[in-house]
From TrEMBL:
Gene Ontology cellular component list: plasma membrane
Keyword Transcription: no
Protein name: ABC branched-chain amino acid transporter family, ATPase subunit
Record Pfam families: ABC_tran, BCA_ABC_TP_C
Amino acid sequence: MLELDQLVMDFGGFRAVDRCSFRVEAGTITGLIGPNGAGKTTLFNLIAGAFPPVSGSIRFLGEEVTGLSSDALFHKGLVRTFQIPHEFHRLTALENLMMVPPAQPGESLFANWLSWGRVRAAEAKVERLAWEALEFLELTHVAHERAGNLSGGQKKLLELGRTMMTDARLVLLDEPAAGVNRTLLRKLEDKIRILNEERGYTFILIEHDMEMIQKLCAPVICMAEGKVLIEGDFQTVRADPRVLEAYLGETVGDAA
Ligand SMILES: Nc1ncnc2c1ncn2[C@@H]1O[C@H](COP(=O)(O)OP(=O)(O)OP(=O)(O)O)[C@@H](O)[C@H]1O
Protein backbone atom coordinates (compact mmCIF):
# COMPACT_ATOMS: atom_id res chain seq x y z
CA MET A 1 0.00 0.00 0.00
CA LEU A 2 2.81 2.39 0.90
CA GLU A 3 6.42 2.29 -0.15
CA LEU A 4 9.06 4.68 1.18
CA ASP A 5 12.36 4.72 -0.61
CA GLN A 6 15.42 6.48 0.83
CA LEU A 7 13.47 9.41 2.29
CA VAL A 8 15.54 12.32 3.56
CA MET A 9 14.43 15.46 5.43
CA ASP A 10 16.69 18.24 6.68
CA PHE A 11 15.95 21.21 8.91
CA GLY A 12 18.75 23.70 8.31
CA GLY A 13 21.87 21.60 8.63
CA PHE A 14 20.13 18.97 10.77
CA ARG A 15 19.10 15.64 9.18
CA ALA A 16 15.84 14.64 10.89
CA VAL A 17 15.02 11.76 8.52
CA ASP A 18 17.97 9.89 7.07
CA ARG A 19 17.43 7.58 4.10
CA CYS A 20 14.33 5.85 5.49
CA SER A 21 12.94 2.97 3.47
CA PHE A 22 10.16 0.56 4.30
CA ARG A 23 6.91 -0.86 2.94
CA VAL A 24 3.52 -0.97 4.57
CA GLU A 25 1.36 -3.89 3.45
CA ALA A 26 -2.38 -3.38 3.04
CA GLY A 27 -4.38 -4.58 6.04
CA THR A 28 -1.60 -4.23 8.60
CA ILE A 29 -1.20 -2.03 11.67
CA THR A 30 2.42 -0.90 11.60
CA GLY A 31 3.88 0.47 14.83
CA LEU A 32 6.49 3.21 14.58
CA ILE A 33 8.52 3.51 17.76
CA GLY A 34 11.77 5.13 18.82
CA PRO A 35 13.13 7.54 21.40
CA ASN A 36 12.24 11.25 21.47
CA GLY A 37 13.64 13.09 18.48
CA ALA A 38 14.07 9.91 16.41
CA GLY A 39 12.28 11.48 13.46
CA LYS A 40 8.92 9.67 13.68
CA THR A 41 6.70 12.74 13.46
CA THR A 42 8.83 14.23 10.69
CA LEU A 43 8.43 10.98 8.76
CA PHE A 44 4.65 11.17 9.29
CA ASN A 45 4.72 14.73 7.97
CA LEU A 46 6.50 13.56 4.84
CA ILE A 47 4.07 10.67 4.28
CA ALA A 48 1.04 12.91 4.85
CA GLY A 49 2.31 15.62 2.48
CA ALA A 50 2.89 18.35 5.09
CA PHE A 51 6.15 19.10 3.26
CA PRO A 52 8.14 17.37 0.51
CA PRO A 53 11.28 15.35 1.29
CA VAL A 54 14.71 16.66 0.34
CA SER A 55 15.13 13.43 -1.60
CA GLY A 56 13.64 9.97 -1.88
CA SER A 57 10.25 8.82 -3.02
CA ILE A 58 6.86 7.81 -1.68
CA ARG A 59 4.48 5.49 -3.50
CA PHE A 60 0.90 5.04 -2.33
CA LEU A 61 -1.36 2.39 -3.89
CA GLY A 62 1.17 1.90 -6.64
CA GLU A 63 1.29 5.57 -7.58
CA GLU A 64 4.18 8.00 -7.16
CA VAL A 65 2.90 10.63 -4.68
CA THR A 66 6.12 12.33 -3.56
CA GLY A 67 5.52 16.04 -3.08
CA LEU A 68 1.72 15.86 -3.32
CA SER A 69 -0.15 18.09 -0.86
CA SER A 70 -1.89 16.66 2.18
CA ASP A 71 -5.18 17.65 0.57
CA ALA A 72 -4.45 15.65 -2.59
CA LEU A 73 -3.36 12.66 -0.49
CA PHE A 74 -6.50 12.95 1.65
CA HIS A 75 -8.61 12.57 -1.49
CA LYS A 76 -6.65 9.44 -2.39
CA GLY A 77 -7.49 7.92 1.01
CA LEU A 78 -4.35 8.74 2.99
CA VAL A 79 -5.62 10.36 6.16
CA ARG A 80 -3.73 11.71 9.13
CA THR A 81 -5.53 12.34 12.39
CA PHE A 82 -4.88 15.62 14.10
CA GLN A 83 -5.88 16.96 17.46
CA ILE A 84 -9.28 18.61 17.20
CA PRO A 85 -8.43 22.20 16.20
CA HIS A 86 -8.91 24.74 18.98
CA GLU A 87 -11.61 26.61 17.07
CA PHE A 88 -13.62 23.36 16.82
CA HIS A 89 -13.79 23.00 20.62
CA ARG A 90 -16.96 25.09 20.65
CA LEU A 91 -18.65 22.74 18.17
CA THR A 92 -20.39 19.61 19.39
CA ALA A 93 -19.00 16.12 18.81
CA LEU A 94 -21.61 15.58 16.09
CA GLU A 95 -20.76 18.88 14.38
CA ASN A 96 -17.06 18.04 14.50
CA LEU A 97 -17.74 14.89 12.50
CA MET A 98 -19.99 16.72 10.07
CA MET A 99 -17.25 19.33 9.42
CA VAL A 100 -14.90 16.75 7.86
CA PRO A 101 -14.63 17.64 4.18
CA PRO A 102 -16.17 15.12 1.78
CA ALA A 103 -13.70 12.53 0.53
CA GLN A 104 -14.88 12.75 -3.05
CA PRO A 105 -14.37 16.12 -4.78
CA GLY A 106 -17.64 15.52 -6.65
CA GLU A 107 -19.48 15.77 -3.36
CA SER A 108 -18.41 19.36 -2.75
CA LEU A 109 -21.07 21.87 -1.85
CA PHE A 110 -20.21 23.76 -5.03
CA ALA A 111 -21.21 20.77 -7.12
CA ASN A 112 -24.44 20.64 -5.17
CA TRP A 113 -25.29 24.33 -5.63
CA LEU A 114 -27.17 23.41 -8.75
CA SER A 115 -29.81 21.58 -6.82
CA TRP A 116 -31.20 22.38 -3.37
CA GLY A 117 -32.53 18.84 -3.16
CA ARG A 118 -29.04 17.46 -3.66
CA VAL A 119 -27.69 19.72 -0.92
CA ARG A 120 -30.27 18.40 1.52
CA ALA A 121 -29.60 14.82 0.47
CA ALA A 122 -25.83 15.33 0.87
CA GLU A 123 -26.35 16.90 4.32
CA ALA A 124 -28.58 14.03 5.41
CA LYS A 125 -25.97 11.52 4.25
CA VAL A 126 -23.20 13.30 6.19
CA GLU A 127 -25.37 13.42 9.32
CA ARG A 128 -26.21 9.72 9.00
CA LEU A 129 -22.52 8.87 8.64
CA ALA A 130 -21.71 11.01 11.67
CA TRP A 131 -24.29 9.20 13.82
CA GLU A 132 -22.97 5.83 12.62
CA ALA A 133 -19.46 6.89 13.66
CA LEU A 134 -20.71 8.05 17.08
CA GLU A 135 -22.53 4.77 17.60
CA PHE A 136 -19.50 2.71 16.58
CA LEU A 137 -17.33 4.70 18.99
CA GLU A 138 -19.97 4.56 21.76
CA LEU A 139 -20.09 8.34 21.90
CA THR A 140 -23.78 8.97 21.16
CA HIS A 141 -24.34 10.17 24.74
CA VAL A 142 -21.97 13.10 24.09
CA ALA A 143 -23.16 13.84 20.53
CA HIS A 144 -24.38 17.31 21.54
CA GLU A 145 -21.57 18.02 24.00
CA ARG A 146 -18.99 20.60 22.97
CA ALA A 147 -15.79 18.87 21.86
CA GLY A 148 -13.80 21.05 24.28
CA ASN A 149 -15.65 19.45 27.20
CA LEU A 150 -14.83 15.87 26.24
CA SER A 151 -12.20 13.87 28.14
CA GLY A 152 -8.81 13.20 26.55
CA GLY A 153 -9.88 9.68 25.58
CA GLN A 154 -13.21 10.80 24.14
CA LYS A 155 -11.36 13.37 22.03
CA LYS A 156 -9.09 10.63 20.66
CA LEU A 157 -12.12 8.50 19.82
CA LEU A 158 -13.65 11.51 18.07
CA GLU A 159 -10.45 12.00 16.06
CA LEU A 160 -10.75 8.37 14.97
CA GLY A 161 -14.39 9.09 14.12
CA ARG A 162 -13.28 11.88 11.81
CA THR A 163 -11.41 9.32 9.70
CA MET A 164 -14.66 7.35 9.40
CA MET A 165 -16.23 10.30 7.61
CA THR A 166 -13.77 9.78 4.75
CA ASP A 167 -12.91 6.98 2.36
CA ALA A 168 -9.76 6.29 4.37
CA ARG A 169 -7.48 3.51 3.17
CA LEU A 170 -4.36 4.36 5.17
CA VAL A 171 -4.68 6.16 8.50
CA LEU A 172 -1.72 7.74 10.30
CA LEU A 173 -2.25 7.93 14.06
CA ASP A 174 0.18 10.07 16.04
CA GLU A 175 0.35 8.93 19.67
CA PRO A 176 -3.30 7.83 20.06
CA ALA A 177 -2.70 6.67 23.66
CA ALA A 178 -1.27 9.96 24.94
CA GLY A 179 -3.40 11.41 27.75
CA VAL A 180 -6.01 8.63 27.61
CA ASN A 181 -7.13 6.82 30.78
CA ARG A 182 -6.77 3.03 30.92
CA THR A 183 -10.47 2.25 30.42
CA LEU A 184 -10.84 4.38 27.32
CA LEU A 185 -7.48 3.13 26.09
CA ARG A 186 -8.85 -0.42 25.88
CA LYS A 187 -11.85 0.90 23.98
CA LEU A 188 -9.63 2.89 21.61
CA GLU A 189 -7.55 -0.23 20.94
CA ASP A 190 -10.71 -2.25 20.23
CA LYS A 191 -12.00 0.34 17.80
CA ILE A 192 -8.68 0.55 15.94
CA ARG A 193 -8.65 -3.25 15.68
CA ILE A 194 -12.24 -3.41 14.38
CA LEU A 195 -11.58 -0.66 11.82
CA ASN A 196 -8.57 -2.67 10.69
CA GLU A 197 -10.10 -6.15 10.65
CA GLU A 198 -13.66 -5.43 9.60
CA ARG A 199 -13.44 -2.21 7.61
CA GLY A 200 -10.07 -2.85 6.02
CA TYR A 201 -8.26 0.26 7.24
CA THR A 202 -4.47 0.06 7.19
CA PHE A 203 -2.82 1.96 10.04
CA ILE A 204 0.58 3.35 10.89
CA LEU A 205 0.75 4.27 14.51
CA ILE A 206 3.40 6.31 16.33
CA GLU A 207 3.24 5.35 19.98
CA HIS A 208 5.32 5.40 23.14
CA ASP A 209 2.85 3.10 24.96
CA MET A 210 4.49 -0.28 24.42
CA GLU A 211 1.44 -2.18 25.66
CA MET A 212 -0.61 -0.73 22.82
CA ILE A 213 2.17 -1.43 20.32
CA GLN A 214 2.45 -5.02 21.52
CA LYS A 215 -1.30 -5.61 21.35
CA LEU A 216 -2.01 -4.01 18.01
CA CYS A 217 1.05 -3.73 15.84
CA ALA A 218 2.75 -6.08 13.42
CA PRO A 219 5.23 -5.22 12.18
CA VAL A 220 6.98 -2.78 14.49
CA ILE A 221 9.58 -0.39 13.10
CA CYS A 222 12.05 1.29 15.42
CA MET A 223 13.70 4.56 14.39
CA ALA A 224 16.63 6.36 15.99
CA GLU A 225 18.50 9.45 14.87
CA GLY A 226 16.43 9.69 11.71
CA LYS A 227 17.15 6.14 10.57
CA VAL A 228 15.20 2.90 10.54
CA LEU A 229 17.04 0.73 13.04
CA ILE A 230 15.06 -2.49 12.73
CA GLU A 231 11.73 -3.85 11.55
CA GLY A 232 10.10 -7.03 12.85
CA ASP A 233 7.54 -8.39 15.28
CA PHE A 234 7.31 -6.75 18.70
CA GLN A 235 9.36 -9.38 20.54
CA THR A 236 12.18 -9.29 17.99
CA VAL A 237 12.37 -5.51 17.98
CA ARG A 238 12.18 -5.28 21.77
CA ALA A 239 15.01 -7.80 22.20
CA ASP A 240 17.33 -6.12 19.69
CA PRO A 241 20.37 -4.60 21.44
CA ARG A 242 20.35 -1.59 19.06
CA VAL A 243 16.86 -0.71 20.23
CA LEU A 244 17.83 -0.94 23.88
CA GLU A 245 20.87 1.20 23.20
CA ALA A 246 18.79 3.84 21.39
CA TYR A 247 16.39 4.13 24.33
CA LEU A 248 19.19 4.07 26.90
CA GLY A 249 20.89 6.89 25.02
CA GLU A 250 17.69 8.87 25.45
CA THR A 251 17.60 8.19 29.20
CA VAL A 252 21.21 9.23 29.65
CA GLY A 253 20.67 12.28 27.45
CA ASP A 254 17.55 13.31 29.35
CA ALA A 255 19.27 13.00 32.68
CA ALA A 256 22.19 15.13 31.57
N1 LIG B 1 10.28 22.16 11.98
C1 LIG B 1 11.45 21.78 12.51
N2 LIG B 1 12.52 22.60 12.51
C2 LIG B 1 13.70 22.20 13.03
N3 LIG B 1 13.91 20.99 13.59
C3 LIG B 1 12.88 20.14 13.64
C4 LIG B 1 11.60 20.48 13.11
N4 LIG B 1 10.76 19.42 13.29
C5 LIG B 1 11.49 18.47 13.91
N5 LIG B 1 12.75 18.90 14.11
C6 LIG B 1 13.84 18.15 14.75
O1 LIG B 1 13.93 16.90 14.07
C7 LIG B 1 14.20 15.85 15.01
C8 LIG B 1 13.13 14.79 14.88
O2 LIG B 1 11.92 15.31 15.45
P1 LIG B 1 10.56 14.49 15.42
O3 LIG B 1 9.52 15.35 16.05
O4 LIG B 1 10.31 14.00 14.06
O5 LIG B 1 10.93 13.27 16.38
P2 LIG B 1 9.97 12.21 17.05
O6 LIG B 1 10.60 10.88 16.86
O7 LIG B 1 8.58 12.37 16.55
O8 LIG B 1 10.04 12.60 18.58
P3 LIG B 1 8.90 12.53 19.74
O9 LIG B 1 8.73 11.09 20.06
O10 LIG B 1 9.55 13.28 20.85
O11 LIG B 1 7.67 13.19 19.22
C9 LIG B 1 14.28 16.50 16.39
O12 LIG B 1 15.62 16.72 16.71
C10 LIG B 1 13.54 17.80 16.20
O13 LIG B 1 14.03 18.79 17.08
